[in-house]
Structure formats: C-alpha cells, structure tokens
Specification:
There is one protein chain. With 143 residues, the protein is of the alpha+beta class. The chain is built from four helices and five strands; from the N terminus they run βααβββαβα. A five-stranded mixed sheet has the order 1-2-3-4-5, with helices on both faces. A hairpin with a 3-residue loop joins β3 and β4. The model has no long low-confidence stretch (mean pLDDT 94).
C-alpha cells in the first residue's frame, strides 16, 4: 500500500480521493471539495490518499494539526474512510498508523477524531485500534 499527501490542485484529489471520500461525505461535489480545500489548506487542512498495489485509491483521510489549550497540539482527523470494496483489508489501520506517525513527528500529544453515533462499525474499528471515547461532542445546526 502506498500512502501519499495530496496538495491543493493535485488532479488526484478529484480523480482518486473524491470518489472514496464521497462514501463518507456524499454531499461533496468537485467544486465543493475544491472550495473547502482552498479555504481549509491555509488553516492546516490536508488530505491523504491510500493506494493499493494496482494503483487504485482505497482510502482517504482529511486531517489537520491544531493548537489549543486542552491538548496543546493535536492531530485532528476530519475524515477517515476506506472504500467499501477494500474494507477489512488493513487500509484503515494503515491510514491511522500513518496519521499517528505524522502526529508524533510534529510533536502532537493526541490523535483525535469524532465519529457519528450511528457509525457502529467504525466505532468497533476505533476500539480495536486502542482509541478511547474521551468526550461528548456537541453541535448546533445553523443552517
């Protein structure tokens, strides 16, 4: 498996990563992803893609490093998804391992993510990867 970070403007963002990312975020369109990355990149947003031996994108992660008063410095995972056809094949574990290594390299004290309450299979995966539920996350729709 090959795991690479994709910079804004990289054509693989749309051709490779977007179809996988849409399995988790079906509302994303090409223009919306470009817009989000254009705005989010200066704020630290990055996208990482996992490719299988055939060169097919089978996993995607959106993430950023955040400084805050709680954790001082953490790597926050916005999106983590394995393509349906590649699940249970180690893609998620490889991506999470890659992100953990990035977090350690950059002096983070925590690897952090939120997962929707309905995503029970994802929760089982996170528990297997020795992640813990450490807080409630609250939100209020403004739209």
């Amino acid at each position: 498996m090959k795991i690479i970070d994709l910079e804004p403007g990289d054509p693989r963002l749309i051709a490779d990563l977007l179809p996988v990312l849409r399995e988790l975020r079906p509302h994303l369109t090409e223009p919306l992803l470009k817009s989000v990355y254009e705005e989010g990149h200066p704020q630290g947003l990055r996208f990482t893609a996992a490719y299988d031996a055939d060169g097919t994108c089978v996993g995607a992660a959106g993430w950023r490093t955040i400084a805050n008063t709680v954790d001082v410095r953490k790597l926050y995972v916005d999106d983590l998804v394995t393509a349906e056809r590649a699940r249970s094949g180690g893609v998620g574990r490889a991506l999470l391992g890659y992100l953990e290594a990035r977090a350690r390299e950059t002096g983070c004290t925590l690897l952090d993510l939120d997962s929707g309450t309905q995503r029970l299979e994802a929760h089982r995966f996170y528990f297997r990867e020795r992640m813990a539920v450490t807080a409630f996350h609250f939100g209020k729709d403004l739209v």
